[in-house]
Amino acid sequence: MTKIGFIGLGNMGVGMARNIAAKGWPLSVWNRSPSKAESFAGANVAAVKTPAAAADGADFVITMLADDAALEAVTLGSEGLLSRLAPEAVHISMSTVSASCTRTLAAQHAAAGRLFLAAPVFGRPDVAAGAKLWIAAGGAAALVERCRPVLEAMGQGIIHVGEAPDQANVFKLAGNFLIGSMLESLCEAFALLRKHGVDPRPFHELIAKNLFRSPVYENYGNIALSGRYEPPAFRLALGLKDMTLALQAAQESQTPMPVLSAVHGNLLSAVARGLGGLDMPAVIRVVEENAGLGDAESA
Question: Pick from 65, 3, 11: which is nearest to 232 by CA?
């Protein structure tokens, strides 16, 4: 029977791991906060004490972590997953990280004679819990097919982006840039309406459900208008991290992205104001403050 290791039980990872466990596959879980792994343990789920132990005897090891540093920390070193990853096993990296981080890890795996697939995901925690993620896979086609049953347990669709793992990360960063720019433009539109004394709610209804039917406009717009940014499904600080990684990818390839620079700037301003722990639509506070409207919650 397929055995899986899962590393990272954050807002996204916990739902993904539950969907893996629901398949009945033996599952080992590790999290930086041991209590999360221990409370997750069940009939076919064992909590382990190190990333290496999560990889011990596993056919697939999935990592879902916050950033480059966290991914490198659990992968490399004497207690890293790579130290125990079997030659025929696959490390599936599903985190949103930089293309350069993925290139480094892919090279490390290749040097060790181990298999590595980058498969970052699109979706918020409720989407992850419902196994409705969209998954961008970067790696050899045969490797993607081998991993397909595991990926399908967590998502509604798999897009094979290219043969190089880092191509999947650029794909994901490009998508997150669009999400960030959609949120920024929506918040700016709300600010314009409020400056002219117009209620933005009918506008949001028209945009989100008719003109530009999109869960991004609908969900993020609802959060921005309600002013309810806690508990955060996706922290604003992580949005800034993603825009920073997208800027790095643009600089590496000499791709001018002026809209990305503007989105990054407002997210940076929001974090500087202490809003990094709130849900990402809290950036509307910066947009409205810049427009002289004050706090979005009181608008």
Answer: 11
Distance CA 294, CA 225 (A): 14
DSSP H helix total and E strand total for the chain: 14, 9
Architecture, CATH, for domain 170-292: Orthogonal Bundle (1.10)
Between the two ends of the chain, the Cα-to-Cα distance in Å is 56
Q: Write the pLDDT tens digit of every residue in 212-224.
A: 999 999 999 999 9
Helix (H) or strand (E) holding 155: strand 155-162
> Which pTM does this prediction carry?
0.94
Q: Phi/psi of residue 279, each to 5°?
A: -65, 150
**CATH number for region 4-163:** 3.40.50.720
Residue 134: phi and psi, rounded to 5, are -100, 130
Q: pLDDT-based confidence at 298, cuts 50/70/90?
A: very low
Active-site residue numbers?
Answer: 172
